């Protein structure tokens, strides 16, 4: 199993550009999520999904869109990049989508810089 | 606003010494707490999933305890080794509608001096 994969690993955008960060998992996990990691702030939840066709907002959803058309893929879209979105983005997945708490498996991260 | 706090923020420990650090979380409506280990330039990896008051979990030299009534969990490392250098994150799980939301603490950065 490849686990959770993310592309690209690094990206530089200009303010106002849009792009999609890709995330895929091959473990048949129901639950997938996106986090951003900023210095001194730990990991903050952007959006999450409990299964194909179902998504919801986390703590910091503004400026990001997600969709979940398949169990495997959970792309994160930046609609109009801003310097405040410079961060490291992690995708994660787990078996849990309800009343059992399973550990999360993280992807390798995407380092995004917006100039 | 829900706060998950970890202390200390950073810790420097001599190789061979034992150490511990704390995760504090809201004591009402507890559901689950996770501990993750995050090495530099890698991704976080799960250490423990803790769900019951009084839980004690162990993996090698690392162990964790949970007190849901007072809202804290301790992570202990016995006989620290250089490979234990990492940031240790706790995550508080909130059951929400049909899924769980996860709130991470900002982590304790542990450095082991050889």
Question: Main attributes?
Answer:
heterodimer, A: 115 residues, mainly beta, 7-stranded mixed sheet, 11 strands, B: 114 residues, 6-stranded mixed sheet, 5-stranded antiparallel sheet
Q: Note the run of SSEs of chain A as H and E.
A: EEEEEEEEEEE
Tell me the distance between the termini of chain A: 36 Å
What fraction strand of chain B? over 45%
pLDDT averaged residue by residue of chain B: 91
Quaternary state of this entry equals: heterodimer
Order of helices and strands of chain B: EEEEEEEEEEE
What does this structure look like?
The complex is a heterodimer of chains A (115) and B (114). The termini of chain A are far apart. Chain A is built from no helices and eleven strands. Chain A is mostly beta strands and 115 residues long. In chain A, a hairpin with a 5-residue loop joins strand 4 (31-37) and strand 5 (43-51). In chain A, the strands form two sheets. In chain A, strands 2, 4, 5, 6, 9, 10 and 11 form a seven-stranded mixed beta sheet that branches. In chain A, strands 1-3-8-7 form a four-stranded antiparallel beta sheet, with no helix packed on it. With 114 residues, chain B is mainly β. Chain B contains no helices and eleven strands. In chain B, the strands form two sheets. In chain B, strands 2, 4, 5, 9, 10 and 11 form a six-stranded mixed beta sheet that branches. Chain B starts with a strand and ends with a strand. The mean pLDDT of chain B is 91. At the A-B interface, strand 4, strand 5 and strand 10 of A face strand 4, strand 5, strand 9 and strand 10 of B.
